[in-house]
Amino acid sequence: MTSSAKENALVEALLACKLASLPLPADVKGTWLAEGVLQLIPAEPWQQATVISAGIHGNETAPIEMLLRILADISSGKQPLHQAILVVFGNLPSMRANKRYLHNDMNRLFGGRHAQAKPGNESRRAAQLEQVVADFFASTAPQSQSNRLHLDLHTAIRGSRFAQFSLIPFHRHAYHPSFFALQEACGLDAVVQHTAPGGTFSNFTSDAFGAQSCTLELGKALPFGQNDLTQFATTEAALRALIAGETLPTRDKAPVRYFSVAESIIKSDARFTLNLDPQAENFTELDVGYEIASQPGKHWTVSAKAPYILFPNAGVALGLRAGMLLQPASPCLSLPD
Ligand SMILES: [Zn+2]
């Protein structure tokens, strides 16, 4: 069987919910905490508890395939596992439908927001994922209290000036230098610091469990089987080293660019307009003084301090974010006084 045929067989197995019968080596204890959620704990002592999630948006397939490959290698014994991990395949029904979501964008529903959403596939699943992550961190607490990680793997809808980047949720606890070393080793081009809380999965794990969390945007969303996984090889190598407890690979790229969110553009009126080419890439530098968006009573103008646009989307529901303006930040986000 070729490796791509093998991956497709794995994807099919996952989608048919047959992964629960995945064999594991004798020194790894596997427990399915929910459909598509596998806890793996090595028999020998370990220090770090890491949640690795993919498919919170069902059509973002490359990270799902990457995670399946790693899981297959753990199963065969080829991939060493020396840390506790929780592997989460986020939204199985939307993966089967090759859709971002069925009823609600799941990555806006965490931190209890699912209780306010119209009940549906994603509100149920977000509530369940909050519970299984709580169970995982509770059961691994003696070893991992100060060493919890969460990497939520995504691909973006639009093109990006920086092909691979991460978003670090707003947090009050310290993020360790080792976490930024991981960002570097993953080959990311940019790291963005949120400056306000949100309903993302990574915001939830950071806020509720003091984890070092981020959302990784690893490229453009394509259907299963059409991903060029070599694009993701650096991130995959870093993840494999992380869970093996090995030294992270050395970065072989220009330094990471750091940004923080200066302003969120919140759409709160049906007459909202976003004055931007729909094809505009993430991190496009806009002209100073340009009116990027408007709605009755509010105009957003680009300032010299924060000229970069991220995730522009005029189509969001009222009350949600239609884009963010970014400012450059110092390395590892040590905030200026
Ligand atoms: Zn996504």
From TrEMBL:
The keyword Repeat does not apply. The keyword Zinc applies. GO terms for molecular function: succinylglutamate desuccinylase activity. InterPro entries: AspA/AstE_fam, AstE_AspA_cat, Aste_AspA_hybrid_dom, SuccinylGlu_desuccinylase. Its cofactor is Zn(2+). Pathway: Amino-acid degradation; L-arginine degradation via AST pathway; L-glutamate and succinate from L-arginine: step 5/5. Zn(2+) binds at residues 57, 60, 154. The active site is at 217. Keywords: Arginine metabolism, Hydrolase, Metal-binding, Zinc. Binds 1 zinc ion per subunit. Transforms N(2)-succinylglutamate into succinate and glutamate. This is Succinylglutamate desuccinylase. It comes from Candidatus Pantoea multigeneris. The gene is astE.
